[in-house]
Amino acid sequence: MTDHRTPLDSVLDTVGETPLVRVQAAPDEVPVYAKLESFNPGASIKDRIGEYMVEQMLERGELEPGGTVIEPTAGNTGIGFAIAAGQLGVDAVFVVPERFSVEKQQLMDALGAEVINTPTEDGMGGAIDRAHELAEEMDGAVVPQQFSNPLNVEAHYETTGPEIFEALDGEVGAVVAGTGTAGTLMGIAEYALEQDPDTHVVAVEPEGSLYSRTKGEDVEEAEYKIEGIGTHDPATNELFDPDLVDEVLQVPDRRAHEELKRLAREEGQLVASSAGAASAAARHVAERIRDGEIDAPHDSVATVFPDSSERYLSKGIYRSFEEWEG
Ligand code: PMP
């Protein structure tokens, strides 16, 4: 557990125990609280899985000290793994499709990791294939694979979930979180449902993403600008369990963008698009609890703001909706 009042040995000791802050625009009767994950040392929620997965893989002997983690990733996960690997005596290699944010690749490089680019047209699938090829060629290399590794869920079951419940004295009516790999939501949901099986669990995805289809919704596939959440092929996601989820809410790009700009202007919160989507969805859930449309065990909603807008300034996150490159 992090205690910020005493000197710490390593930056890894500052992962987790992030602040939980009220979203002021939500109804007073059903407050919404957001976990501010940009307070982690690599400025995103992915520092949690970086630390947890590398530590666990070392402990279980799946990874040897001096070995290498090779992960296909577009961003935050690479930074989280790079910090953990560097501090735990492991090398890190990230396979990143060319089109992804230059800032994030510069940070991975600064943290001592090797960044290998794959052609944009080969997509994330190309990066995943290349990561596995590299792992076969290299002694002591493993691919943690955040999209299929249960340790991703476990990291949030062990840390994010309990932190939320502790801060709210166990009175959590609903949990609402953006779903990319689904590690965050599944870990929090598993913990929440153990505390109270009636907790209302909501997955958030961009409009155009297809997690909704797992709940029988006939949604259309489309491109979206919101970064870090959503899927075009829920069947390939081994971590997302629709049985733990009461509903999947879709948030249009425009709504997420409007909300992230409002959060900055009105609430002093510098958060990115997946947090804008989570906030809009969490407020909607709170209003429905207040209006008696959702039967939740407590009058409160917990959500997660995964990272900061600073990482997306070059993509025009605070410009007009049309100018925002997503
Ligand atoms: N928001 C951002 C900015 C992210 O990078 C991610 C990770 N893909 C998420 C949300 C979603 O988290 P998870 O992968 O745990 O579902």
UniProtKB/TrEMBL annotation:
<keyword id="KW-0198">Cysteine biosynthesis</keyword>
<dbReference type="InterPro" id="IPR050214">
    <property type="entry name" value="Cys_Synth/Cystath_Beta-Synth"/>
</dbReference>
<dbReference type="GO" id="GO:0016740">
    <property type="term" value="F:transferase activity"/>
</dbReference>
<dbReference type="Pfam" id="PF00291">
    <property type="entry name" value="PALP"/>
</dbReference>
<keyword id="KW-0808">Transferase</keyword>
<comment type="similarity">
    <text>Belongs to the cysteine synthase/cystathionine beta-synthase family.</text>
</comment>
<protein>
    <submittedName>
        <fullName>PLP-dependent cysteine synthase family protein</fullName>
    </submittedName>
</protein>
<dbReference type="InterPro" id="IPR036052">
    <property type="entry name" value="TrpB-like_PALP_sf"/>
</dbReference>
<dbReference type="InterPro" id="IPR001926">
    <property type="entry name" value="TrpB-like_PALP"/>
</dbReference>
<keyword id="KW-0663">Pyridoxal phosphate</keyword>
<dbReference type="InterPro" id="IPR001216">
    <property type="entry name" value="P-phosphate_BS"/>
</dbReference>
<keyword id="KW-0028">Amino-acid biosynthesis</keyword>
<dbReference type="GO" id="GO:0019344">
    <property type="term" value="P:cysteine biosynthetic process"/>
</dbReference>
<feature type="domain" description="Tryptophan synthase beta chain-like PALP">
    <location>
        <begin position="12"/>
        <end position="305"/>
    </location>
</feature>
